[in-house]
Design brief:
Rossmann fold, 7 strands, alpha/beta, 14% strand, 258 residues, seven-stranded parallel sheet, globular
Length: 258
């Protein structure tokens, strides 16, 4: 089989949450540059629409801003997607938030905000888009749901981000649950567990902690757009057709070797 047949995503319709910056933007650019039709969403309408306008100079990119931490917004977003496409080939559940605070003072708001966006929104957005995913999937070519977890769901971080770590561990196990139950509907569900990539979230990490982590990473660097784009394209293409319930850790070796 030729490389083009294995890895092409040309013509696929791809939905990316949290798609306006960071890892979401990296994934959106990779798909746009390789001929996919991309729909991005993010809470900040100006940033979301600005990136869509930029990417539309390269290919087909539509912005539908939404706050996916709210059920009404999940439903509105799913309805808006259904109004412009009959199928979704690939759904990237990437939108996420973090919260850090000492154990004794960690607030309920820091728990609920993170869990609602990082876990609840993944389940319910996938549920609301299930008919479009089913319409795209066939026995020979499954539709794909790709959940963005984190290495913090695989190891114990030194940062006191309790709800974030719990949410990402939940995402990885929910991925396996969804994979088992959606495979029969011709939808393959997998996850990516990123390490440290440039983003608004990682920018909040103390500089000394960031430097120490980079030094402890076997590859001695942070991830970049090519690293994330490569694995994201793989998971949406024929090359990953027999992956179901898998978690691909993309962290330069940090979580599995330190």
């Amino acid at each position: 089989m030729k490389i083009e047949d294995l890895f092409s995503v040309r013509g696929k319709t791809v939905v990316i949450t949290g798609g306006s910056r960071g890892i979401g933007e990296m994934i959106a650019r990779a798909y746009i540059e390789n001929g996919a039709r991309v729909i991005i969403t993010a809470r900040n309408a100006a940033v979301c629409e600005g990136l869509a306008a930029e990417l539309s100079k390269i290919g087909d990119c539509t912005a539908i801003p939404a706050d996916l931490s709210q059920m009404a917004e999940i439903e509105r977003f799913a309805t808006a997607v259904a109004a412009i496409t009959n199928t979704v080939d690939v759904l990237f559940n990437n939108a996420g938030a973090s919260w850090g605070a000492p154990f004794d003072s960690f607030p309920e708001a820091g728990w609920d905000k993170v869990m609602d966006l990082n876990v609840k929104s993944i389940f319910f957005l996938t549920q609301k888009l299930i008919k479009l995913l089913e319409a795209a999937g066939t026995p020979e070519s499954n539709a794909r749901v790709i959940n963005i977890g984190s290495i913090d769901g695989q190891h114990v971080s030194a940062l006191e981000t309790y709800s974030y770590a719990a949410s990402k561990a939940g995402v990885l196990h929910m991925t396996r649950m969804m994979a088992k139950n959606l495979a029969g509907r011709h939808i393959a569900v997998n996850a990516i567990a990123p390490g440290f990539f440039p983003s608004k979230m990682t920018a909040a990490i103390p500089a000394e902690f960031s430097a120490a982590m980079q030094q402890e990473t076997p590859m001695k660097r942070w991830g970049n757009a090519g690293d994330m784009g490569g694995v994201a394209l793989f998971l949406g293409s024929r090359a990953s057709a027999f992956l179901c319930g898998s978690v691909i850790t993309v962290d330069g070796g940090y979580a599995t070797t330190v």
